[in-house]
Amino acid sequence: MKIVIAPDSFKESLSALDVANAIEQGLMQVIPDCEIVKIPVADGGEGTVQSMVDATGGSIVSLEVMGPLGHKVNAHYGILGQQTAQQTQPIAVIEMASASGLHHVPREQRNPLLTTSYGTGELICDALNRGIKHIIVGLGGSATNDGGAGMAQALGILLLDKHGKSLSAGGAALAKLANIDMSNAHPLLKECTFEVACDVDNPLCGERGASAIFGPQKGATAEMVNTLDSALSHYADVIAQSGVTDHRHQAGAGAAGGMGLGVMAFLGAELRPGVEIVMQTVGLADKIRGADLVITGEGRIDGQTIFGKTPMGVLKQAQLQNIPTIGIAGCLGDNANAVLEQGMAAIFPIIPHLSPLDDVLANAKTNLINTARNIGAVLMLGQR
Fold first, then answer.
1. Is the domain of 31 the same as that of 80?
2. What pTM, to 2 d.p., does this model score?
3. Closest Cα to residue 173, out of 203, 202, 153, 201?
């Protein structure tokens, strides 16, 4: 029996690889002779770098970069291991949040008028300097509303005011943008392919734009939202006037404080669903071929899982090969049965009894092992 284990992380408790290892341990207690294939996966959000590095036998690069408030922070990105004969060049995977995430900014200091994505640009620059020509960038979790301006500046692109001076950091400064000079941009940018994991469809500006929808969680008041929205609109005007395609209305342009627009304008990036990029990059379709069962999971399975989350991405790949799929979750939320309606064979929560959250997180590994062991026992009953 071949069983493929392809879970996401259980946030705040176990990485995707830890989850896969625990499920394997439980299954092997009752099916010791089964073939287990572990593929840690993610949906492009938090944990994507670690999952893809673990899945491909890659490595982590750690470095100090500029954080959202201009102070140095520790950040990292991943370089994937080779997966196929066709993949002869290394691929870097960068989570924007690692350098420019909200977790770097104390709640009382959150101010998207001032925060910058410069550190994300430094991560990209480091990967380019290593000769990497394929970079995947995961958006989300950012503290910024600068439209990717800081990232662009870190890559040598000059954003100038009417006096020919470089713009200061932050979303508010975009209102002063008068000219964009790309002549000093990093020379390897044009040689690199950028894929961007983006799972929101917000345009850049307006009532569904970056500032209105995501600004408040980054510390923006109602007045700040108006200032930021106007600044982003002006920013998009100047970008369009510079000869770059106007992407402000494209779905996803407003992701991560307008970083969606920035990566399209300055990196020539394509925005794609995160889970789609991850599944393709780790070669999930090839690895599940010939499997009798696929097991996936995440910390919480609920009605939102069907909208681009990891278990749904895994399920779709398995369905293409008529392989049954089971989901395991830390807990089941409202309308979790929606995944059953999409074709998942069964879903299992791992929590055996009501407990304080700290205990639930601390016991996640044990509970996963026990749940997987019970699933394995039921599978063996079906073999009799």
1. no
2. 0.88
3. 153
